[in-house]
Design a protein that fits this description.
Chain lengths: 216, 223
Amino acid sequence: MTNNDDTKTARKTVLSTADHHLQINQLSVLRGMVLVISNLSHQQNAGDICCLTGPNGAGKSTLLRAIAGRLPAAGGDINCVVPIFYVGHTNGLSGAISGRQNLAGWAKINGFSATENAIDTALSSFATNRFADLPVRVLSLGQRRRLALARLALAPANSLWLLDEPNAGLDQASSRILDDIVQKHATAGGMVLAATHLDFAAAAKPRSLHLPGLET
Amino acid sequence: MKPFFSQIERDLLIAWQNRQDIGVMLVFFVIIIALFPLAIGANATVLDPLGVPVIWIAALLAILAGFDQLFAQDVRDGWLDQIALSQLGLGWYALAKAISNWLTAGLPLFIMTPLMAMMLNIPPQQWPPLLIALLIGSMGLTLLCVIGAALAEGARRGTALMALLILPLAVPLLIFGTLASQNDRGIISPHLMLLGAVFALLLALAPLVAASALEIGETETGL
């Protein structure tokens, strides 16, 4: 509990000195000919964890992809002043090569240090070392998820993490590790926006952004 | 530049794991060349002038055949999302793809060509112009195929669409390439220079066209 209180005070100090690091104004996004998100506004500051909730098809993944710049906005604008890291429901891992090779390749195309040590540390953040040298195609869904999330250990402290169902398929131990890493990231001044149906970083009391869907 | 070479390294690692694909492509190349004499018949006066064009047609088809999956796997894996957010950018990514693909398809074909030239009884003094022209031509074809693969990405029946898009555009490469290969007076010929010009144009255009095609294809169809 004391740990939790520390987290909160740290978040407050960061908040008082920062502007909105992520600012979404009146955003509308089309998917094909369907308006999936209309007139959405949202702000997030350094140290904020936000859970994106809503029924299937409410536009959670669409919003994350729009913020990541992978979908154009039909109206409104998105401003983000910090680097963005996205872990979508596709993990971004090639099945032909090992998890370690995948992670090292990802680190290098982002300009991060890909020394043996740095990669090992990142892999151990989700306890993936045991299967990191196997080709990804033989791994289970949860194991692939953990390899994809191990990237977060390499992301800089001030970044925005966009996580699409990060804890789907994870076992309880890995979910706890994820909660832990997310809280540490927020304490260090990072931001997290996660679409989820499950408990996510509950101890940090995340904010919630509810997308109602457009059927009603 | 480091992210650029890392992308090539990653593609080569993946290609090494799928190295049987290279073997399949080479066998395809050899079979097409072997089929021509069988269809035309054992008549040396007809067959002799056909050697160089046959090699070019076979190389064109073999390179084209390996290309429909160029971007598909990366899109399915979500790797393209990671590329778009990284320092690399889609243009450099497309160029890296072209280079790694040439190394795993064009280069093996190129190495195989002297053997095919022997099989088709092409006189040895014609080998240097043939090899030089085929080297430049295969690089040009690879760049052309990168454009086609990016444009056809996400479309149903992408393979057929890509062939329809690419084959007409490959005509200049084919004309200048075969003429340069059949030059009797040394390696350098006007046709080789024109072939080089087409290659230089493609080198400048292909990454840009492929990047915008990938950008539009991804954002319009989505996942």
